[in-house]
Each structure stands twice: as C-alpha cells, then as structure tokens.
From TrEMBL:
Protein name: 3-oxoacid CoA-transferase subunit A
Coiled coil location: none
Membrane-crossing residue ranges in chain numbering: none
Entry annotated with the keyword Transferase: yes
UniProt keyword terms in alphabetical order: Transferase
Keyword Transferase among record annotations: yes
Gene Ontology MF term list: CoA-transferase activity
Organism: Flavobacterium segetis
Family named by the database record: Belongs to the 3-oxoacid CoA-transferase subunit A family.
Classification via Pfam families: CoA_trans
Lineage per the UniProt record: Bacteria, Pseudomonadati, Bacteroidota, Flavobacteriia, Flavobacteriales
C-alpha cells in the first residue's frame, strides 16, 4: 500500500512558490487548514492566487495572509467578514473575482473530475457572465464556466489514513471534498491520522488516489466566526 504520510507541515508544503494558484478548503472558519495557512505566512510566500469560498476574518485564516499582503488575487464567493479584505479590494491592492457559491464549488468539482468546462444558469445577465460564452438549453440561458486550474489544493479533514483516504465532519465537507484532487498536488491536513485499514470504506468521502500528501495537524483553534447565543 502506498504511504502518503509526510512528517510535518513544512514537508507537506514543499514546492509551493511565489505566484502559484492554491485552493484552500473550508466553509467560513469551519474546516480550514489552519496549520498550512500559518506555514504559508511563515514562509512569506507571495503573489498567491487563492481560491476559497471566503477570505477568513481579520487576524485568522486567510486573513493572516491578507494582512501580510501575500495574496495577489482572491477568487471567492463570500467575503463579508474581513475588513482588511474590503480595504485592499477598494484601494485596488487586491484583485478580486467574485463567483456564485454553487459555481465556485462546481468549478472545483469539474477540475477534480477532469471536465474542462460546463454550462450553468447562475450569473446569466449579470457581471458574472461578461466576456463568457452563453447558450440556451431548454428555453433557458446558461453561462459557460471553465474548470479551475490550480497548482496545489490544501484541504483539512477530520480523519485520514496514511494512504490519503479522508473523512470530513459537518460543513467542513462543503468545499474540502470538491477541492481534493482538483489541483496538480493535493495536501491533506487532518486531525486524526490513522494506519491504513482503520477507516470504514463506507464512510470515506475522498479516496486516497486524489491525495498526494497527508499529515497530522495540531493546535487547531476552531474559532467560531459568528457566535450566536440564546437570550436568558
């Protein structure tokens, strides 16, 4: 059995260079690869194009990379929780490509499946469709969207084994699952790294064939993005 385990985050991120395009999994602050983001900050990797559902928050997640101006372009769906993102976008310091959430997920999944492009009705008649091919299907107009091309995909899973098989937990599955295998190299950061054969095959969300490197993360903060409590 192929063993894809690497010893630490430094070894996992080898080969990531300035100017590359990186997919980063997570939904809000749920299921983000915290250790890998912190290592990118430490490496001072710059001019990155980051594909992620959102841009983290100030002082956490991708917000740490934004703070140090390491991101050149952000491709996202929802970016409303980050004041530094807003400042950089409005000042022209950051190139931003906003994409409907379902389209963003499908562009990742298409890359994962080796599909170069697809048609979707989302965004037709808006700025999203500008410069793109459109076509009518069953009386409804659609926009052609290209699959993403990324150098690395960094995902975070709840459990994984040394062969790269992954299990996600809750909403962490939303974008991590479709990003795994959608880039030239996929790195999986996991909470629990187990020997091969430890996972129930019926519970595996992503097979190891889609993962090239896997390592056990530590000291996960798992911050809550918006804390809502019931009144007494």
């Amino acid at each position: 059995m192929i063993n894809k385990k690497v010893n630490n985050v430094q070894e996992a991120l080898q080969g990531i260079e300035n100017g590359m395009t990186i997919m980063l999994g997570g939904f809000g602050l749920c299921g983000i690869p915290e250790n890998s983001i912190a290592e990118l900050v430490q490496k001072e990797t710059r001019d990155l194009t980051c594909i992620s559902n959102n841009a983290g928050v100030d002082e956490f997640g991708l917000g740490l990379l934004l703070k140090k101006h390491q991101i050149k372009k952000m491709i996202s769906s929802y970016v409303g929780e980050n004041a530094e993102f807003e400042r950089q976008m409005l000042s022209g310091e950051l190139d931003v490509e906003l994409t409907p959430q379902g389209t963003l997920a499908e562009k990742c999944r298409a890359a994962q499946a080796g599909i170069p492009a697809f048609f979707t009705p989302a965004g037709f008649g808006t700025e999203v469709a500008e410069g793109k091919e459109t076509r009518e299907f069953n009386g409804k107009m659609h926009v052609m969207e290209l699959a993403y091309k990324a150098d690395f995909a960094i995902v975070k899973a709840w459990k994984g084994d040394e062969a790269g098989n992954l299990i996600f937990k809750g909403t962490a599955r939303n974008f991590n699952a479709c990003m795994a295998g959608a880039a030239k190299i996929t790195i999986a950061e996991v909470e629990h790294l187990l020997p091969v054969g430890s996972l129930d095959p019926n519970e595996i969300h992503i097979p190891g064939i889609m993962v090239q490197r896997i390592f056990k993360g530590d000291n996960f903060e798992k911050r809550i993005e918006q804390r809502t409590v019931r009144k007494k």
